[in-house]
Structure formats: C-alpha cells, structure tokens
Amino acid sequence: MVRNFSMQFIAKLSYSSLQNIMLALLIITSFLLSSNAYALSKITAVVDKNPAMINESILLTVTADDDVNRSALDTSSLLNDFIVGQTSVSSQTSMVNFKTTRLTKWQIVLIARNPGQFVIPALTIGDQQSEPVELTIIAAKESGNNAQTDIFVTSELSSNEVYVQQLLTLSIKLHFAVELKSGNLTEPNLTGATIEKIGQDKQSDNIINGKRYRVIEQTYAITPEQSGKFTLKAPLFSGEILQASKRRSSFLSFAQTKPVSISGEELKISVLPIPTNYPSDAQWLPTEILTLHQEWPAGDKKFTVGEPITRTITLTAAGLSKAQLPKLEMKSSRGLKIYPDQAELHANLSNDQLVSQKVQNFALVPSAAGEFLLPEMSVTWFNTITNRIDQATLPSQTISVQAAEGNFASNSANDFNTTANKMANSTNNATNRVNATNNSENLAGQLTDLGTVNSVQDKRLQWLFLTLWLLTILAWLVHIIYLKRDNKANSKSQTNHLTNNNNHYLALLAACKKNNAEQALNLVLPWLKVLLSRNNSVLVINNIDQAQAVIQEQSFVIALNDLQQHLYGKSAINSTSSWQGLALLIAIQMVEKQQSIKVKSQQISSLNP
Q: What is the DSSP string of 393-457?
C-alpha cells in the first residue's frame, strides 16, 4: 500500500513538472517568434512648440519603433539652421499578451540661429525616414508680451569701444520663471583677450512685463590684448526644468523633467590701439582715474637716527586689474636706507566697475642727522575719458632727522680732531728733532774750528755734559718706574675689556642660535664697541651703518642687511617667515677671529725693539 502511494505521488509530480516545462517553452517560443517577426517600420519626429521665439530652445523628439543603436540617428543636417544642444537617448521594451513592443527615443534641444520659416529635414535610420517638420521662428520684437518666454539670457558690456589692455566688465543674467532641476551657463569667450570671473554669483528677483523672474547674475572682467574688431560669443544655458505631472493623484505621480537650452546675444567690441604719442618708456595704463596717496606715522615729521620710519603709499586705479598695477619704487639717498615691504593687492566692484589698489610700505632707516630730501614719485597713465596723458604725482618733500644720544657725527669730528692734533704734535716733535740735530752739527763744526783756543770753556762744557748725563739717567729710571705702573693698569683694563667682550660675544651667539632677531640687533653694537677698544681704535660706533663701514667684511655686511630687512622691511602682521641667524653667527665668528689676530700682531710688534 505504501508502494502504491509513492508511485501515485511521483506520477502527479512528474505530470506537474512536465506542464511547467511545456509552458516555459511555449513562452520562449512565442517571444522568439514575435522578436524575429518584429523589425523597424516607422520613425516619427515632433517638436514641443511651434511657433517658437528666437534664442528659445525647441525640443525635437525622434521615435523609432524598434530597439536600434543609439548612434543610428545622424543630426548633422540640423546644423545649417540650428544650434544643436543637449541630446538624450532612451529605450523601452514592453510585453502585453505575449506581444513585445520596443521603442528608441531621441530628445534633441535645438536653438534657431535666425527668425523665419524653417523645415526640419527628414531624418533617416536604416531604411526608414521621418516626415519633415515645418517650424516658425519669431523675432523677439514680434513676439509681444503674450509670447514671453519662461527662460532667457541677457548680456551687457560696460563699454563697446575700449583701448587695448583696457579692462571692461561683462554682466550675464539668467532669467527664469520655472523651477530648474539643473543647469550650466557657458563662460564668455573672446579671441585675443583674458577673461576672469569677478566675485560670486548674485541672485535676485525681478518682475518683467508683469511676470516674476528669478535672476542669477555673473560678472566677468575682460582685458583685450589685441586691437581690432571682435565678436563676443553668445552665452548658452543648458539644463533641465521640472514639469508638473498630468496624473490627478499627486501621491502616485512623479515630477517630470524637460531639457532646455537658451542662447544669449552676440556682442560686438571695438579695441583701439595704443596712441602713438604715449611715452615709450612708461607702462601703458589705460584707466578712467589713477591716484597716489601717502601716509606717515602720527605726529610731526621729526625722526631720530637709527629708528625706522614707515611710509605707506597707496595707488588706486579704476578699470585696471591687480596684475596691471605698476611697481612702486622709492629712490634712496645718502644716509637713508630704504627697505620695501611686500605689496598688498586689492580689487572690488564699485557701481559695476572694478577698482584695484596696491598698498606698499617702505621702511626708512636714517644713519645720520640732518635734512633728507625725498624725490618726487610719479606714475604716467592714459585718461580714457579725456583721451589725454596724465600723471599721478607725490611731490618731493624734506624730512628732519635729529641726532640720538652719542651722535656719531659729533663723536667722529672729535675723534678726527684728536687724531689730527696727535698727528700735528708728532710732526712738531719730528721737526724739533731735526732742528736739534742740525744745531748739534753746527755746534760741533764751530768747536772744531775754534780748536783748543779756550780751554777754560772746554772744562765748563765737560762739567755741563756730565750733569746732563746724570739727569738723563735719573729721568730714565723714573720712566721705567711709571711704565711698570702703566703696564699693570693696562693689563687690568684689558682683562676687563676681554671679560665684557666675552659676555657680549657669547650673548650675541646665543641670540643667533635662537633666531632672535631683535635681541641679536641690540647686541651687535655693544659687542663691536668692546671689540674695537681692544685695538685702541679711536672710532666710535653708534649705529649699524657705522659698524658696516668699520668692519669691512662682506659676509658681515650682508648678514646685517638681511637682519634689518627682516625687522624693518616686513610688517609684523604680514610676516610669515622667521629670521635665521646662522649667517650672522658665522660672520660674527669670522670678525672676532680677525680682530683677535690684529690684537696679537700689535702685541708682538710692541715687544720687538
């Protein structure tokens, strides 16, 4: 009984499986037969609007009733009268009651180049063709308020006639009264010109002919580099807009998108060459206005030797880019060193016009007291409003520098006077010695001529010479005693000098190793004063310029210039790099070694008879 039950179950199972297999084979066979029997038989072409406005996008939809290659449609015949924009391809396959339907759809965005009557030619796929489509394009003037578009692009130039390298601004505005899903606006393109976007995009609302538009504005700075007639290509917007679904139930409906492309208008630009009367040695600066302005530290214009003075010069120009602003140079004069700072550049839009600025700081370090004449500073530029050559000028001016305590000028004068007096005394002593020698020779000649005529006078002279000899010996003994005392005092003073110099020297080396610029600059002069006093130098050093003049070591001079440039040539706010004291440390060690060699050579020469 169990065996009969198993056989019946297997029979039922086999019969059910057989039915399923037969059904599957029937479906596959029907599918293959219908597929083999189906082929491309029809192509349709339709547009979404007719008539359409100039520069307004037209959506051309081409449908083939079969699954064909996406590249099977050739749209080159449309380029004669239209701008072919974005093209999207989709395919669809459906089966209803074992009947398969296949579709391939192309959606092509077209923009008419000119108004008028046009015919979209028949499009061919395989051996099938679509029907031609007649299309009417209306100019903007003929459209009227009723035919106002939902999306359009406007362009505006600050001027249609400019000089070469004269900056002009281009404003591009995208107006749309529909909801955008995505979009892209092409950047302007002009042959022989540099184009730079200025600022961020601006968004606003505007009502035009009773219709509200959302406006996105972009601004570009255009600098033509060649003269002649040029055409600025029209901007092109390509994107997708959202369309409301036709289904009644919003719960089951999905938003539909539609590709659009909108073209702006081409703009003509005339670029004039540089005038022939413009100076050849001056930088070409075409602008509406250019000014120079200077600022000094607060208070009166009386400054002190060795203290840095900051002079700020600002150049402002309208219609020039930051890269076009000229270099500001300040000429140095004797006794006044100048350290220029890194220039700051700024550019802003003011009343739809680009205004650029260059701010330059100069650190002036006087090395002597007196009156200093700062020469005139001028910049030549071309006034594009009056078509004349102008100059922006900072007139020459005089600054007064007062001496610091222990001025080098007075000390140097005293030192030179002292040296001159010593030289004069030495000259007088030498003259007295020569006169004494001549008198001795004359006296000897007279004694020889007289002979032994007066023996009494000879004896008196012998006693006189003996007395003078004894006095000379006594004076020599006294001189030796005082010389020993002076040597003891000098050795003690020299020991103190060595101790002070060693302290300043070690502290200066430590400041260089720590890269402490201010501390190193403050220790240079005390170290040099003690170092030079060891060589019995009569010169007094009170500032860095005097130190560089006395210590004529190239590496030492360069290292001190770099140190001053770091402290005075860069503001503390804008300084980003730290000073490295290795170069100054090596130069100081070299100067210390050279001065030590000089001291030893002087000591050896003083010991030799």
A: EE--EEEEEE--TT-HHHHHHHHHHHHHHHHHHHHHHHHHHHHHHHHHHHHHHHHHHHTTS-HHH
3-state secondary structure 81-124: CEEEEEEEEEEEEEEECCEEEEEEEEEEEEEECCCEEEEECCCE
- Residues 243-295: pLDDT tens digits? 765 555 444 445 677 788 888 888 999 999 999 999 988 999 999 999 999 98
**Do 390 and 289 meet the contact criterion of CB atoms below 8 Å apart?**
no
Residue 185 near residue 264 (C-beta atoms within 8 A): no
**Residue range 149-245+253-272, CATH number:** 2.60.40.740
Instruction: Tell how far CA 239 is from the center of its chain.
Output: 37
| Beta-bridge mates of residue 176 | 151, 214
Summarize pLDDT for 83-141 with one digit per residue, the tens: 887 788 888 877 777 677 788 888 888 888 788 888 888 888 888 888 888 888 887 65
155 sits in which H/E element? strand 151-157
Q: To 10 degrees, what angle do helices 582-607 and 517-533 make?
A: 10
- Measure the CA–CA gap between 374 and 395, rounded to whole angstroms: 9
Give which of 564, 553, 506 is closest to 530, Cα–Cα.
Answer: 506
For residue 97, give both structure tokens. Answer: 């009651």
Q: Identify the DSSP state of 342.
A: P
Which one is the CATH code of 286-402: 2.60.40, 2.40.370, 2.160.10, 3.40.50?
2.60.40
d(CA 529, CA 139) in angstroms, rounded, equals 90
Any idea which residue has 């035919």 for tokens?
A: 147
pLDDT higher than threshold 50 for residue 323:
yes
What's 67's DSSP letter?
Answer: -
CATH code given to domain 43-143: 2.60.40
Nearest Cα to Cα of residue 110 among 152, 147, 80: 80
Name the burial class of residue 135, with classes exposed (0-12), middle (13-18) and buried (19+) by CB atoms within 10 angstroms of its CB: buried
Write down how long the chain is.
609
CA distances from 60 to 69, 78, 103, 109, 110 (A): 19, 11, 16, 6, 7
**154 CA to centre of own chain:** 34
Q: What is the distance of C-alpha 345 from the center of its chain? A: 8
Nearest CA to 130 out of 39, 37, 47 is that of 47
Task: Label the pairing between strands 267-272 and 161-163.
Answer: parallel
Contact 185, 153 (CB under 8 A): yes
> What are the domain boundaries of the chain?
43-143, 149-245+253-272, 286-402, 480-607
Q: Which residue has the higher pLDDT, 515 or 245?
A: 515
Q: Does the reported pTM lie above 0.70?
A: no
Point out the least confidently predicted range of 54-58, 327-331, 371-375: 54-58
Q: What is the DSSP string of 232-277?
A: EPPPEEEEEEEE--S-S-TTT---EEEEEEEE---EEEEEEPPPTT
Which residues is 269 bridged to in the sheet? 230
Long-range interactions of 508-512: CB distance < 8 A, separation 24+: 508/588, 509/585, 509/588, 509/589, 511/581, 512/581, 512/582, 512/584, 512/585, 512/588
Q: Are 58 and 49 in contact (CB under 8 A)?
A: yes
Share of the chain above pLDDT 70, in %: 72
Whether residue 8 is predicted with pLDDT greater than 60 in this model: the reply is no
Quickly tell me which residue has 């004797």 as its tokens.
334
d(CA 132, CA 44): 9
pLDDT above 50: residue 373? yes
